[in-house]
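can u do me a favor
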């Protein structure tokens, strides 16, 4: 619903990126990623925002990776080490003697040097000498040199670093700075200021930016590399980052690795479903084996966990054939392919059962190696000194559902009943991991594992607990614990400033997200209608009962929970109509979520022919060669039930 969706985008230089905002997608509502640009006020996405792109649940994993490296581009929010001042640098270089050097107070912070593109050879030399041949960030003292004989501007002030001219002070400021530089020269002193230098070598050319008298907390120096040996774009210690060219090659290799006989392995889902319907298990297993290979190849490129669906489908086929040893083998293969053995909960659970069926009961799964492991109370393995820390934001835990028994025990010890929030403190501990990787950050309350920090906030939390002053200690942070009183309870644990995101004491995370999404979507709809013209017309095509069709997702869920399936189906079908109108105008495939909901409701009512018709309708509305593989797979299964 924002820039990318409405074909209004823009090119944002990576040097201007200072952060990003991310909202995950769900079955009904698209997510968004907003790039926060320097000197541009960051707010909630607005109609046509060129710095925001939306995505569906099917593509969320790609945008999560994009979010990860955009955050690294913005730089670390806090520094682990101090960068020496210009005075300190000069003193060190003069053997502890200041000599005839004048450190100059510009009275202007974050002064951007101009004309760097004219001195690319200088940056090549500077970064080569710094041991960063592809660029990165370095800190140096810059000498200001008056150029009264400059043919373009007699007030010009050149910026020289380690004997290399790298640019000039902006022309509008040069007349006020040059007199001070000249006065220092008359005293036989050189004038220096602190400088931050960013540069990158890509496409056979250097791009650079020099900032004089930088403000804020300085970041440690780091360098660019062409190949990553860690997940994401930045190394865990922050000293290396992947270049844009390296990222492009990585993504190209990733997409190439996904191909099976010229098609993305995910596109084979309906083919496998059809083979199973035809009871051609040999064909299904043959295709699945190729898909497993492709999933592992693609994951290895990104140092990520492979897609699990080919493995799970193969396990289902092997179990139907009662070949339990083969089922165990294919599941163990998946676990072995996961970084640090971080397999999914469903695979781990299936593997436990497969080993039982194969008579290998004693060969248990190491559930502690899986952050999606089945529920059990895991206790803090050892005691370390504890230090209380604060974070200026709210961080949500994930996987609480896997630790419901531990959460019940925490509430019981505090004499708190489900349905009432407990305000407590959690100890954070990063799991052991490979040297050039990142460990899951677990949260323990009263020594019991209650969840792990969500991926969105994990990097920020790791930065806190990895600080030098916290070495050998556990970090403790205030938290809020809520367990619903339902027969199948939901839990929500929020670290830090939970009051910023929790509206009610009994609010779950899903309810909070739905509330936030409803507010944002309603505001966006109002803005687009008020804009008039093409934008308003585009919004009107998306309206269902006066709202944008994506605003009805929570209502459809609520109707289903209330067993009002007829009303839910009618609303879902109206949303399908609006999604198709919008997709036809923009020549793209409709949002599949509402078709899926309608299909599930038809299936629940036993109307298989209607289920087939609504799924076929989706495929007919998609441009040739496009559409949802999940819809195609569902259609194969529905036709088999006719």
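np, heres the sequence
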């Amino acid at each position: 619903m924002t820039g990318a969706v409405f074909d209004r985008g823009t090119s944002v230089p990576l040097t201007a990126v200072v952060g990003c905002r991310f909202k995950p997608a769900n079955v009904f509502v698209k997510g968004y990623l907003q790039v926060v640009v320097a000197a541009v006020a960051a707010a909630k996405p607005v109609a046509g925002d060129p710095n925001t792109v939306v995505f569906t649940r099917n593509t969320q994993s790609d945008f999560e990776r994009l979010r990860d490296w955009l955050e690294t581009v913005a730089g670390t929010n806090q520094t682990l080490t101090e960068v020496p001042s210009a005075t300190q640098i000069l003193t060190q270089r003069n053997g502890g003697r200041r000599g005839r050097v004048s450190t100059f107070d510009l009275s202007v912070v974050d002064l951007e040097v101009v004309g760097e593109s004219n001195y690319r050879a200088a940056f090549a030399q500077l970064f080569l000498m710094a041991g960063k041949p592809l660029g990165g960030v370095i800190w140096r003292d810059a000498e200001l040199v008056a150029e009264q004989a400059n043919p373009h501007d007699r007030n010009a002030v050149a910026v020289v670093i380690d004997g290399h001219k790298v640019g000039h002070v902006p022309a509008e400021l040069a007349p006020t700075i040059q007199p001070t530089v000249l006065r220092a020269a008359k005293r036989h002193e050189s004038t220096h200021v602190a400088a931050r230098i960013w540069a990158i070598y890509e496409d056979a050319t250097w791009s650079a930016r020099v900032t004089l008298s930088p403000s804020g907390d300085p970041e440690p120096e780091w360098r660019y590399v062409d190949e990553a040996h860690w997940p994401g774009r930045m190394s865990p210690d922050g000293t290396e980052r992947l270049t844009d060219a390296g990222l492009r090659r990585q993504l190209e290799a990733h997409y190439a690795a996904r191909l099976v006989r010229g098609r993305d392995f995910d596109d084979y889902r309906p083919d496998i479903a059809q083979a199973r319907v035809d009871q051609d298990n040999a064909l299904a297993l043959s295709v699945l084996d190729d898909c497993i290979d492709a999933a592992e190849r693609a994951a290895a490129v990104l140092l990520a966990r492979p897609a699990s669906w080919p493995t799970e489908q193969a396990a289902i086929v092997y179990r139907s054939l009662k070949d339990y040893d083969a089922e165990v083998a294919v599941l163990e293969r998946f676990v072995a392919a996961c970084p640090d053995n971080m397999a999914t909960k469903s695979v781990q659970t299936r593997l436990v059962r497969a080993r039982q069926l194969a008579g290998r009961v004693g060969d248990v799964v190491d559930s502690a190696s899986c952050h999606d492991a089945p529920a059990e109370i895991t206790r803090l393995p050892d005691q370390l000194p504890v230090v209380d820390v604060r974070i200026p934001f709210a961080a949500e835990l994930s996987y609480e559902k896997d630790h419901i028994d531990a959460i019940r025990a925490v509430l019981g010890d505090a004499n708190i009943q489900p349905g009432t929030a407990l305000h407590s403190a959690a100890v954070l501990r990063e799991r052991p991991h490979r040297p050039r990787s990142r460990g899951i950050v677990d949260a323990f309350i009263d020594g019991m594992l209650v969840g792990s920090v969500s991926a969105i906030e994990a990097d920020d939390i790791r930065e806190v607990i990895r600080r030098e002053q916290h070495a050998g200690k556990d970090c403790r942070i205030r938290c809020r614990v809520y367990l619903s009183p339902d027969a199948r309870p939901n839990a929500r644990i929020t670290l830090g400033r939970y009051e910023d995101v929790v509206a009610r004491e009994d609010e779950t995370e899903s309810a909070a997200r739905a509330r936030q999404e409803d507010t944002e979507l309603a505001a966006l709809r109002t803005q687009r209608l008020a804009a008039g013209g093409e934008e308003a017309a585009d919004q009107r095509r998306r309206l269902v009962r006066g709202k944008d069709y994506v605003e009805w997702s929570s209502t459809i869920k609520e109707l289903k929970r209330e067993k009002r399936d007829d009303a839910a189906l009618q609303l879902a079908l109206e949303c399908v109509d609006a999604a198709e109108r919008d997709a036809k105008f923009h020549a793209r495939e409709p949002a599949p979520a509402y078709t899926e909901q309608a299909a599930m409701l038809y299936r629940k009512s036993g109307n298989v022919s209607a289920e087939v018709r609504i799924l076929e309708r989706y495929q007919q509305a998609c441009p040739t060669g496009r559409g949802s593989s999940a819809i195609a797979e569902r259609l194969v299964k529905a036709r088999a039930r006719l």
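Residues 68 and 232 are 6 Å apart (CA to CA). hope that helps!!
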